[in-house]
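Query structure, 78 tokens:
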């Protein structure tokens, strides 16, 4: 049985905030077009919807492969 999970690449959203001169969570969420709660959940490893992946790609000009990673289930919470 495959216990893998798709998530936003670990540290990606945090690095983008740093590149924007420590942009607030609220400002980053607004730029992406999602709620601050959704942004926080993504940073904690929750699975993004295809719409959220598209919004992140559009905001930061990434390809989906640069945004997403597949991790084993036990790594997903770490």
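Result returned for the query:
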């Amino acid at each position: 049985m495959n216990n893998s999970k798709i998530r936003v690449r670990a540290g990606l959203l945090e690095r983008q905030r740093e590149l924007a001169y420590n942009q607030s969570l609220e400002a980053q969420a607004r730029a992406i077009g999602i709620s601050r709660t959704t942004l926080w959940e993504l940073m904690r490893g929750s699975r993004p919807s295809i719409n959220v992946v598209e919004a992140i790609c559009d905001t930061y000009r990434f390809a989906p492969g640069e945004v997403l990673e597949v991790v084993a289930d036990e790594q997903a919470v770490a």
